[in-house]
Amino acid sequence: MLELSWRVRPGRECKYCGETRLAMMRRSKAALYGHMRLCRACTVRYSRQWPAENPDKVRENRRRAEKSETRRRSRNQWRAANPDKVSAQKARHRKANAEKVKSYLSEWKARNPDKSREYAQRYVARKVSATVEIFSDLDVFERDSYICYLCNEVTDISLPLYAPKRTILEHRVPLSRGGDHSMENCATACWECNSRKNAKTDTEYLALLAS
Fold first, then answer.
1. Domains defined for the chain, CATH in brackets
2. Which residue has the higher pLDDT, 121 or 30?
3. How much of the chain exceeds pLDDT 70, in percent?
4. The pTM is what?
5. Angle, in degrees to the nearest 10, between helices 113-127 and 98-111
């Protein structure tokens, strides 16, 4: 006898109402077969009923949450007051878990290429003692309507990273030549113009094109 695909396996029905339709069950990756022994309707019903029947537990949970929030604030205050100790702790963690940290960073950079580049730009700006203003690449792109300020063509942020018309953040005056990482010194460019400009100022690049 073929197993019906629309219903749960025997013994996995809702433990409260006996619901067997798979589409009505509450999903969970950690649960057996990908769903809990709890349907959606009972989830809603008992999420309202349980607090009314267990006021003491509700108050205890709230106290724990408040205590946890107090600890979080205290921890953040300590970190703000002890930046050197925090840096030393992070360095020890990176050293003790070098391979794990390296693997995580590689995966994160692959998932977030734009943010990775944004953080790298801030890091370089700090290394050369430039002024670092906190903003995102998207703030600049939206201000410039995604138009490259060097060739005046519309760019596309969804293109692959090295595509000629991929949207890229460009420093008018390069960081290596004393430029700041600020909204005023940043502009939208396409990857093609960005790679050609390299470490030139925008004035030098445009003069080179005109010659």
1. 1-62 (no CATH), 112-210 (1.10.30)
2. 30
3. 95
4. 0.46
5. 110
